[in-house]
Amino acid sequence: MKTDLNSLKNQVKEELKKEGGSLGVYRKYLGPKGEITQILRSLKDLPEKERKEKGKLANEIKNEIEKAVESGKYKTRDAKYKTQDAHFDITVPGKKPSLGHLHPLTLARREVEEIFESMGFSVIGGPEMEKEWYNFDALNIPKDHPARDQWDTFYLKNGLLLRTHTSPVQVRYMEKNNPPLRIIVPGPVFRHEATDISHEFELMQVEGLMVDKTVSVANFKAVIDEFFRRFFKKDVKTRLRQDFFPFTEPSFDVSISCVVCGGKGCPTCKKSGWVELAGAGMVHPNVFKNSGLIPKDWQGWAFGFGLERLVMMKYKINDVRLFRSGDLRFLNQF
Ligand code: FA5
């Protein structure tokens, strides 16, 4: 046993010479399962003579390792203090840990929700994986209707599709809730489209729906004017022009006077002074019917806008793809 410990001592010496008092050496011999720790633990079971001899040797090795570890520690500590000493200024403010923050689209979505909630609208969600019935048929877009081409669709293997707009939630909500009702539906939608500076294949839409006994286009104009005024924090003009959507009649596209140039004409608005932000219209009787409501009893308007385009206008952003690029130079500005 004595020879064992002697050769262990030599081995340790060699290692200390090579590595110095490293944490690795310390753990190997003096850690909870270290060789020396175990030997020291087993001493109590040995006859006295052997215990004394072995104990002495084991403790010598232990001390040697501890000494090497300690001196190694001080060496690095000293070196550290020496280089810092000359420049150490305790008055320099500490480095602020950088915190994450919300994505600009999340911030905008919350702002939109707050404005509409203050006008009595409820915020509603709906499934992103949708049935063809709700995304198309119930919205008066039967199979083979050419209007389906307007929304290039990702079809899934499970027979569902990724919703191409938030309009299906109109039907889902009216099936379960009786008018009068006022809702907005913010959420992601997906389109099988090539991307460019104003088109993404995933975008955030905000659907709006108001249904009551007597609801008119004038109502819609008042609500949307108030919304734009509060979102852009300035007076913006709104323009409705005739458009076509199978689920509204009449339908219109909603443009606002360009916030960048004030309507004078600039590259952002392609010199027209107007920027198109939403599709809208009066709810088509077939949509009421498909939602289980009696069409002649109700009137309603609906709209759907792209949140990206709204935020782009507000902050003069010239490429929609920046939102999902993960580029911190862009994101850190919000
Ligand atoms: C629709 O999706 C209709 N559901 C809107 C609607 C709702 C009409 C209710 C009537 C009643 P459209 O495909 O035009 O319509 O899209 C609406 C808005 O989404 C557009 O005005 C635009 O702001 C935004 N948008 C559409 N496609 C993209 C895209 N690829 N990238 C970014 N924004 C887009």
TrEMBL record:
Main location: cytoplasm
Residue ranges of domain Aminoacyl-transfer RNA synthetases class-II family profile in the record: 110-313
GO-annotated molecular function: ATP binding; magnesium ion binding; phenylalanine-tRNA ligase activity; tRNA binding
InterPro entries: aa-tRNA-synth_II, aa-tRNA-synth_II/BPL/LPL, Phe-tRNA-synth_IIc_asu, Phe-tRNA_ligase_II_N, Phe_tRNA_ligase_alpha1_bac, Phenylalanyl-tRNA_Synthase, tRNA-bd_arm
Record-listed Mg(2+) binding positions: E249
GO terms for biological process, alphabetical: phenylalanyl-tRNA aminoacylation
UniProt-listed Pfam families: Phe_tRNA-synt_N, tRNA-synt_2d
Cofactor: how and how many bound: Binds 2 magnesium ions per tetramer.
Catalytically driven reaction(s): tRNA(Phe) + L-phenylalanine + ATP = L-phenylalanyl-tRNA(Phe) + AMP + diphosphate + H(+)
TM segment ranges: none
Gene3D superfamilies cross-referenced by the UniProt entry: Bira Bifunctional Protein, Domain 2
Cofactor: Mg(2+)
Intracellular or extracellular location(s): Cytoplasm
Key words, A-Z: Aminoacyl-tRNA synthetase, ATP-binding, Cytoplasm, Ligase, Magnesium, Metal-binding, Nucleotide-binding, Protein biosynthesis
GO cellular component terms, semicolon-separated: cytoplasm
Keyword Metal-binding: yes
Enzyme nomenclature, EC number: 6.1.1.20
Subunit field text: Tetramer of two alpha and two beta subunits.
Family, as annotated: Belongs to the class-II aminoacyl-tRNA synthetase family. Phe-tRNA synthetase alpha subunit type 1 subfamily.
NCBIfam families in the cross-refs: pheS
Protein name: Phenylalanine--tRNA ligase alpha subunit
